[in-house]
Specification:
The chain is α/β, with parallel strands linked by helices and 489 residues long. The chain contains 20 helices and 14 strands. Strands 4-5-6-7-8-9-10-11-12-13-14 form an eleven-stranded mixed sheet, with helices on one face. A three-stranded parallel sheet has the order 1-2-3.
């Protein structure tokens, strides 16, 4: 009896296993078309590329700023790049969009910004007996060498590279490796370069020759003191016709040379000029023998004391320049805050304005028109008093009174963000006398007090490093004051 019972139990187990297998096959057959792998295989390439940007967010970085200023705040960029490389190895269909992102915007970072760097540092310490006293490895240099080998061996990957960023010390110490890398990148638009490159230093001569000969699509270039010859050659050789951003610092060239070079760049839309004391208002005057100062979307003037509001207003009288300019930055120039209204009047499409000045005198007593602009959205009004100014009242206080008056008359209706160097400025907007209840029915234009939009005010004092945020809301009814949130960093 026991033997027959054992036979029956084995047959029962076999029957249960067969039924379970049939059920599993049934579910597997019915869900095969809905498996994650099957869905991913049918996704369009543009959708896959969009999904991969969430795996490696820094591949969306198309800014022409150095590596140290364009870091992703959250996550580890090296780990994200490793995960994207694993996605490229999943299938042939995934390889194309993944490699496109992987090589379009390349970052070479020195360390992992996560716990993995601790593990890797411990592994690097465990060297063999023969490498016990060897010099520590330069990891960013090794990564640059690996990239150099990859792009030189695979032209299909080399043509995908548009941006190349690396740490400061890597680009300063690996000029030879960098020159060999960029020599096979024909579509390169931006690369982090050593400081000597911008001043025609001899150590960067080979790198400059390779970049000029092999990379015609460079979009941003800087010319510092010592690179006057290279700057003048832009108008003759025209090797970088795609330049969009040009930065000039401490250059000693003739104004005619400056105008000819700028006119030879058909796609130029941003110009930064720093420490050019010889530059004055004559650069904006139109002559029959020289090309005019080109229309720009973004203009930055720093340490140019001979540029005045009259000269810049002359530049903005031309229709093509007036319609193009959308961002203007002024720092230590001849354009005083009291003449800023002339610029706003002649720039109807200006959305960003920044002025940084240290004043020694109070705001003029004669009537000055308010700051008026229907398009301005962001205003940096960083006015500070000179330490040599004496008196009971600081000169900067009257300048902020002028700004308060312009805001309370609704002369800046599109303004959303305001940056000031006065920690008490948000309170001045709230404590200003409110409009009377009958003002809206009698004369809305001349007696209108207050602003209709919510303002994000960022303020800080002279001894503060970070901006303090205050949200200022307009009054809800005539006869009432506006409100402000608690100021916080």
């Amino acid at each position: 009896m026991g033997f027959l019972k054992h036979i029956r139990s084995k047959s029962k187990i076999k029957t249960e296993n067969n039924s379970a297998t049939q059920v599993h096959d049934q579910y597997a057959t019915s869900s095969a078309g809905r498996s994650p792998q099957g869905l991913a295989a049918r996704l369009p390439l543009n959708v896959l590329e969009l999904l991969f940007t969430f795996v490696c967010p820094h591949t969306l970085d198309e800014s022409y700023i150095p590596s140290e200023n364009s870091m992703v705040e959250d996550g580890c960029m090296l780990c994200d790049m490793r995960d994207l490389a694993h996605c490229a190895g999943v299938s042939r269909r995934w390889s194309e969009p993944a490699q496109k992102l992987l090589y379009k915007s390349i970052r070479i970072d020195a360390v992992h910004y996560c716990e993995r760097e601790i593990e890797l540092a411990e592994k690097r310490k465990r060297r063999s007996f023969f490498e016990h006293n060897a010099d520590p490895k330069d990891i960013p240099k090794l990564r640059l060498q690996f990239l150099q080998r990859t792009v030189r061996d695979n032209n299909l990957l080399a043509v995908k590279v548009h941006l190349l960023k690396m740490p400061y010390m890597t680009r300063e110490s690996c000029k030879t490796e960098l020159a060999r890398t960029v020599s096979v990148l024909p579509n390169l638009q931006y690369v982090d370069l050593p400081e000597g490159f911008f001043s025609d230093d001899g150590s960067s001569h080979i790198l400059k020759q390779e970049l000029q000969a092999r990379c015609p699509d460079i979009r941003k270039m800087t010319y510092n003191s010592g690179s006057e010859e290279s700057f003048a050659l832009l108008a003759q050789r025209r090797h970088w016709q795609g330049l969009q951003i040009v930065e000039l610092s401490r250059l000693n060239v003739e104004p005619s040379t400056l105008l000819r070079v700028l006119a030879s760049l058909p796609t130029l839309h941003e110009l930064k000029v720093t420490d050019l004391p010889w530059l004055d208002d004559t650069i904006f005057q139109h002559t029959s023998t020289l090309p005019p100062f080109p229309p720009l979307q973004k203009l930055l003037l720093e340490d140019t004391p001979n540029i005045t509001a009259a000269g810049l207003s002359t530049y903005l009288l031309r229709p093509e320049t007036r319609e193009a300019l959308s961002s203007l930055t002024l720092s230590t120039t001849g354009i005083l805050p009291s003449s800023l209204h002339l610029i706003l009047t002649n720039a109807p499409h200006l959305t960003h304005l920044s002025i940084t000045e240290t004043v020694t005198r109070s705001f003029p007593l004669e009537p000055i028109p308010n700051l008026t602009s229907p398009s301005l959205k962001t205003l940096y009004y960083e006015i500070t008093s000179s330490p040599h100014a004496h008196g009971l009242q600081k000169p900067s206080e009257s300048h902020y009174t002028y700004l308060t008056r312009s805001l309370l008359t609704s002369s800046l209706p599109s303004l959303r963000s305001l940056y000031v160097r006065d920690p008490t400025f948000p309170e001045s907007l709230i404590l200003a006398p409110p409009a009377p209840a009958f003002a809206a029915t009698t004369s809305p234009t001349p007696t209108n007090r207050g602003f209709a939009q919510t303002l994000e005010v960022y303020s800080k004092g002279l001894d503060e490093l970070e901006w303090n945020f205050t949200c200022v809301s307009p009054a809800t009814a005539p006869g009432r004051r506006g409100s402000a949130s608690v100021t916080r960093p």
